[in-house]
Design a protein that fits this description.
about 450 residues, alpha/beta, five-stranded parallel β-sheet, 17 helices, 14 strands
């Protein structure tokens, strides 16, 4: 390492967020950036730890010690080459990855001040685009073709890897643009969609063909395209987990992605009628589900001008960080997470079960909930939910269901069909979907006789 003792004198410094009073009035990215000098100092903190658990924890197998050292020495192009040797889209993960590598950092164990790998990664990617280090790479074709169904993180990673191996790749996407969850699930205040467009332009120049507005259903009624040597299914997890409580059909109860996808489309210039538009403006909003999607709903509701936001979760409140006794270092700690959206204002409650959606004249007015507790199951397995206290009513004109997604089921495919990403493993992190897309591309190459 260029400065193996920097961690002793340089503390962790995050770029932080734009002021709340400023950022809640627009959908611009909330995260700020450090200047070049400060960024180099943060990169210098990556110590000569001997065993880089950051590499172990990253699904992509990223090598932060190598590219942090190059960044510290001012070798930005080398840092980018090292970074992209394992990560095809660092401009995405540098913005929205939860940074498993940082939780596994030795400095997180010792000082609870891990290296700022995610921010460093994002800075390297942006410098590479700015300085022209990102070049179009058109490979020599091998005469074989592959269809990729789905242009989300896994599909794009698989398509990129296969394209660079020499296959002629065609990506079929049911939506009007590529990105999947990146475009339609993650708000612009976390990932500006111009970042996706920039990458799509590059992938097209490198020879990948994209066909939008084409939903391909792989079953007996829709035979597989015969002109491709192999097919990669990367259709994600399209079915959200529902909550079939009484009153579910009331107007005002929506899946989280209905709000998030529509808002992103509005920002892209699409228009919706008054009856179609889902908006939190002037409303009391209840978000059911305590994960990242629920957090994204909170931030979106604030920017739409909501009156209030409450988030409830049926599971217990996570332990306060930074350590998790049930899941110790270097594993990911299941500790309480406070996002930029939570900071903008939100009542958060745990151990709350939803009993009924209430309304008048078919329109939602509130939700009846019940505080519960979890007791050990004498037979083992999932704890038993027991009621605690009296039911209460939370006022709400808009409910957003953010309870995750159901793992898809697939028919038996021919041997030249490969399933990857969330379509294979169920809903997970973008970085894991990308890693599985790359792994699947290698399996396709092996199947087709590549090297």
């Amino acid at each position: 390492m260029g400065n193996a003792k920097a961690f002793l004198s340089v503390h962790r410094q995050e770029a932080g967020y734009r002021p709340i009073h400023d950022r809640i009035h627009d959908f611009g990215e909330v995260e700020q950036t450090l200047n070049t000098r400060e960024r180099k100092l943060q990169a210098s903190r990556c110590m000569d730890c001997g065993v880089p658990f950051c590499h172990w924890a990253c699904p992509l197998g990223n090598k932060p010690p190598e590219w942090n050292d190059a960044l510290y020495r001012g070798e930005w192009e080398q840092a980018y080459q090292l970074l992209t040797s394992t990560n095809p889209f660092p401009e995405f993960t540098g913005r929205i990855c939860p940074a498993l590598c940082e939780k596994a950092c030795v400095l997180n164990l010792v000082e609870h001040e891990p290296t700022t790998n995610r921010e460093d990664e994002g800075a390297i990617a942006e410098a590479a685009f700015r300085e022209g280090y990102v070049q179009v790479r058109v490979p020599v074709r091998n005469g074989k073709s592959v269809a990729v169904i789905g242009a989300g993180p896994a599909g794009l990673a698989a398509a990129n890897a296969l394209n660079q191996m020499g296959y002629q790749v065609t990506v079929f996407e049911k939506n009007e643009a590529a990105g999947g969850l990146l475009r339609y699930g993650i708000p612009n205040f976390k990932l500006n969609k111009a970042i996706i467009d920039r990458r799509m332009k590059l992938l097209e120049e490198e020879g990948i063909a994209f066909k939008y507005g084409q939903e391909i259903i792989l079953d007996s009624s829709c035979p597989l395209p015969k002109e491709y040597d192999a097919i990669v299914v990367a259709t994600g997890t399209p079915t959200a987990r529902d909550l079939q409580a009484p009153g579910r059909p009331l107007k005002g109860v929506h899946f989280a992605l209905e709000l998030l996808a529509q808002q992103n489309r509005v920002l892209a210039g699409m228009e919706f009628g008054k009856e179609e538009r889902i908006t939190a403006k002037g409303k009391d909003v209840l978000v059911i589900g305590g994960g990242d999607t629920g957090s994204d709903c909170i931030g979106t509701a604030h920017r739409q001008g909501c009156h209030s936001v409450t988030q409830i979760e049926i599971m217990p409140r996570p332990v306060e960080g930074p350590e998790d006794p049930q899941n110790p270092w270097p594993n990911w700690p299941r500790t309480l997470k406070t996002t930029s959206s939570h900071e903008e204002g939100c009542t958060r409650r745990w151990n709350i079960n939803t009993l009924e959606f209430l309304g008048e004249n078919g329109i939602l007015t509130g939700v009846k909930v019940q505080e519960i507790d979890w007791q050990p199951n004498p037979k083992g397995g999932r704890p038993i939910m027991v009621e605690k206290g009296q039911p209460e009513i939370i006022k709400a004109e808009l409910v957003l269901l953010a309870m995750g997604f159901l793992k898809p089921e697939h028919p038996e495919y021919p041997e030249n069909v490969f399933v990857c990403g969330d379509a294979k493993n169920g809903a997970t992190l973008v970085v894991r979907a990308m890693a599985n897309g790359i792994e699947t591309a290698r399996k396709v190459d092996q199947f087709l006789g590549g090297k």
